[in-house]
Amino acid sequence: MSTIIEIDNLSKAYDSGTKALSGVSMNIEEGEIIALLGPNGAGKTTLISIICGLVVPTGGTVRVGGHDIRTDWRAARRMIGLVPQEIALEPFEKVINSVRFTRGLYGEKPDDGYIEQVLRSLALWEKRDAATRELSGGMKRRVLIAKALAHRPKVLFLDEPTAGVDVALRREMWQVVEQLRRDGVTIILTTHYLEEAEEMADRIGVINKGQLLLVKPKDELMGEFGGKTLTIELDSTLTEIPAGLADRGLVLATDGRSLRYDYDTRAERTGIARLLGDLSANGITVRDVSTRQSSLEEVFMSLVDDRKSEDAA
Amino acid sequence: MSAINWPGVWAIFHHEMMRFFRTIMQSLLSPVISTTLYFVVFGSAIGGRIQSVEGVPYGAFIVPGLMMLTILQQSVSNASFGIYFPKFSGTIYEYLVSPVGWIEVTMGFVGAAATKAMLIALVILATSFFFVGVHILHPFWMLAFLFLTALGFSLLGFIIGLWAKSFEQLQLIPLMVITPLVFLGGAFYSASMLPPFWEAVAKLNPVLYLISGFRWSFFGLADVPVGVSLVAVAIMVGACFAIIRWIFATGWRLRE
Asked: Which of A215, A275, B60, B154 could crosslink B75 through cysteines, CB 3.0-4.6 Å?
């Protein structure tokens, strides 16, 4: 894999003094799906808006396929497709004309064969002659994707692709992204749905308050921050944790029917075998056990909390 | 500077012209109806009493003025609406993220607005043949003035569309500035018919130079020398280009 986007020390401050981005640096590799994760107002949209040319940065550089987005913007932009967060389409225009128009804007010769292929892959071919205002919300979003793909971009930006859409549509959108990945398109998506990043991304970048907190492969991030929780259901009710088990970090549920044990999957010893042995030695009968991996939501919250405590220190 | 993205220019031009053809009936019919009304009211009712202005029958005399009135209004409204609508609907992002710069966007939008305005002006000219005998003395210069005026005012309209933040603002300048300037610019009379003081005031109106030059191309009659008219239009075109270039370079009202 080679680097397709190089972001170096990128920052954006508004006249009002608001710092939307400060010193963001990262590389994006060809063919990967990277999810930029962060709460509303974290700077995700600002970051992709700068790369795409909608926002002028106050500092730093971005190169797309080796082309600087300020000095060699035409070449840089030819490589990029953007699916914006807000649905913005000309209401009276036919779907197919709208896609043809975008292709023309990118300086490409008409190619109705390719446009048919794109529209078919997005299940829009039957609707090609419909005015965009006649379409459902999900279809409109797919039209935006078709437009963004009209010039065969190497990199596709999806800004909050599933914001405000229902579950079925979200699944549908994920399938579209999966198909694009198979076609070799590099995808950068922003989301504040953690489940979405977990589902789709190869790597995850976490942004908060204009700063990139980290960028890591999803599995590594999950492993690193993703401790596991073992829940032990008991046969009888306990009123307190027996003295012999006091130093194990066990938490007794309020109903006294289960114990919770947090452990690190990467540690040499998880301590589970010993714990189960000790439970039995203390006369506690185990009825059932289950484990659960932390969700990205918890990972994310712990990262943001760490920052807060660092800032406070 | 990189080479111009011609397919991009064509995409914008074609897209804008398509909108015009989607509403072809109202685009062409309403100017034809209003021109007919002008001929009935001004040409027949008033023209019956004025007879001729500087040797030209009054009905024919007002033809260049009517064409100018239309071309100014159409150029400004087509170009301002053309660029304002994507701002309003949010589709402006497409122009900002694609490899088209100020030159392509301006050529596409302004070219389409000027083309539409010229088509309508020519339809009006054709309509006028049904009412009055019009002989065009300098057809080349007639077309040249038509083109330059359509270009100048489409550029102005484009700036208005870039500047406007609401439909109200979009209407404001055409209504408050351009229409009065056209009426006071000698569309229906010769500046020489005014008392000397008002003739001097009228000559401060840039539109007078356009109408005068245009009328000269028809009848060989002008309120001001033709060279002055040409220079006035050229200055306007140049100034508008400079302003548009500045807007795109700074991203004013376009980019954050």
From this structure: B154
Shared domain check, A108 and A50: yes
Judging contacts by C-beta atoms under 8 Å, the chain A residues touching residue B100 are 105
**What single-letter amino acid sits at A310?**
E
Q: What is the CATH number of the domain that holds A250?
A: 3.30.70
pTM (whole model) above 0.80: yes
Which residues, 6 or more positions from A33, have their beta carbon under 8 angstroms from its beta carbon? A177, A181, A186, A187, A188, A189, A200, A201, A202, A203
Alpha carbon of residue A113 to chain centroid: 32
Which of these three, A164, A199, A223, is where a domain ends?
Answer: A223
Most B CBs within 10 A among A105, A106, A144, hence the mutation to make, goes to: A105
Structure tokens at A178: 């999966």
Tell me whether strands A228-234 and A258-263 are parallel, antiparallel or unpaired.
antiparallel
A284 and A268 within one domain: yes
**Token pair for B160:** 């208005």
Q: Packing angle between helix B102-128 and helix B139-163, nearest 10 degrees?
A: 130
- The boundaries of the domain holding residue B216 are 6-250
Q: Which of B16, B182, B153 is nearest to B84 (CA)?
A: B16
Rounded to two decimals, the ipTM of the complex is 0.88
Establish, for the pair of chains A and B, how many residue pairs have beta carbons separated by less than 8 Å: 79
Nearest-CA residue of chain B relative to A12?
Answer: B256
